[in-house]
Design brief:
- The complex is a heterodimer of chains A (273) and B (122).
- Chain A contains twelve helices and ten strands.
- Chain A is of the alpha/beta class and 273 residues long.
- Chain A has a seven-stranded mixed beta sheet. A three-stranded antiparallel beta sheet of chain A has the order 3-5-4.
- The relative contact order of chain A is 0.12.
- Chain B is an alpha/beta fold.
- Chain B contains five helices and five strands.
- The longest helix of chain B is centred in the first third of the chain and has 13 residues.
- Chain B starts with a strand and ends in a 5-residue tail after the last helix.
- The chains are: A alpha/beta (273), B alpha/beta (122).
- Chains A and B meet through helix 9 and strand 4 of A and helix 4, strand 5 and helix 5 of B.
Chain lengths: 273, 122
Amino acid sequence: MISAADRMFVAALCLARAGLKVDVEKSYLMESRLAPVARREGYSSAHEFVAALRDRGEERQGWAAVEAMAVPECEFFRDRGMFHALAGSVLPALAQARAGETVRVWSAACGGGQEIYSLAMMLADAPPLAAKVELFASDLSERSLEKAQAGLYSQFEVQCGLPARMLVRHFEKQGEAFALSPRIRQMVRWRRVNLLDDLSRVGQFELILCRNLLGQLAPEAQGRITASLRRALAPGGRLAVGGRDPVDPQLAPIRPELGLYAAEADTPRSAAA
Amino acid sequence: MLTCLVVDDSRVIRKVSRRILEDLGFEVAEASDGVEALAWCNAMMPDAILLDWRMPGMDGLEFLRRLRAAPGGDRPKVIFCSVENEIERIREALDAGADEYIMKPFDGGIVAGKLSYLGMVA
C-alpha cells in the first residue's frame, strides 16, 4: 500500500504541475492509478515508484504519475445535446460570422480524442460546414495524445456513447481493436499543451471545448486556466464547459444548460439570449 | 411502464439483462429463442427488444426480419446483443432493421447508454 506520505507527495506534484486537485484520502484510487505506471517503469509497487520519484525526482517519471492521476475523457458524444447544438447552430453561425475565414475549434483537454472525433464524425456528414472548420486538439498527456492520434479504441470504448451506425461507417476492425478511418483522423491536428503554461502562442479560436476538466482542478489553477481560455477566445467566440465545471463570470451565457458561453465581444447577442 | 423482451438462449445472460433493465425502470419478459420471441410479440408487442444473434431454433437475424415484416413489428426498438464483433456482421444487423448493437461482454452502463440514445431512458 502507498503510505499517507506517498499520497501527499503525489498530490503536491499533481497540484504543482497540472493544477490537479487530488484527494489524498482516496488511497485505493491512487494505488489503482499508479500501480500500472509503476509496473511500466519497472518498480514492484506504487510505493516503490513514489519513493523513487521523491528521491530522484526524475522529470519524465513525475509526468507519468501526474498523467495517471488526471481523469481522461473517455466517452464519445458525451452530452449529446451539446454536439447537436454545435453542429446544428453554433458552428454554422460562427462560420457565417467568419465570412469565408475558417472557424478554428480547439479541444483543450482532449484525452483519448473521443470528443474531437465525435465532432469530426458529425462534420464528415456535413461537408459544406466541414470545409469551413479546422479542428485542433491538445492534452497534457503524451500517452493520451498518442492514443488519440492513433485512433485505436477497445471494444468497450467504442460502446461508450458511439452509435452503432457511426461505428460501422467510420471504423474498421484491427485485431481486437477498432480503428477510426484515416479520413476522420486527418481532420484533427494535435499538440501537447499544459493549460497552466502561457497560452498566448497557442493562438485564438472561435470555439474552445474544455469540458469536465476545470472541476477537477484546484481553485488557483481554475482561475488561471479560466483566464487563459478567455484570452484564447477570438472575439465573438464560444467556450463549452462541462455541467459541473465552474463558470467564468466574465463570459456571457449562451446556452448555460449545455455549458455554452460567449466571449465578451458578443454582449448584444447574449443580452437577448 | 416501458416493456422490454430479452431474447437469449443463455439463462445467465437473461438474468443479468433483466436486472439491468429493471433497474432502468423496464418491465421485462424473457424468451430463449426467436420462435418464443415471435410468440411473445404476437401476444403483446414490447417497446424494446434486447436480441441475441446465435440461438438454436430461430436465430436473432431471422427473428428480426420476421418481426419487421409483421403488423406493428416496426414499432419496437431492437438492440442486438451478440458476441459477433465484426463490422460486417454489425452492418448486416443494422441493415436488417436493428436500431442499435451491443457487443458482448456488456455492462449496465453500455445498455443504459444505448437505450438513452434511442430515447427510451432519460
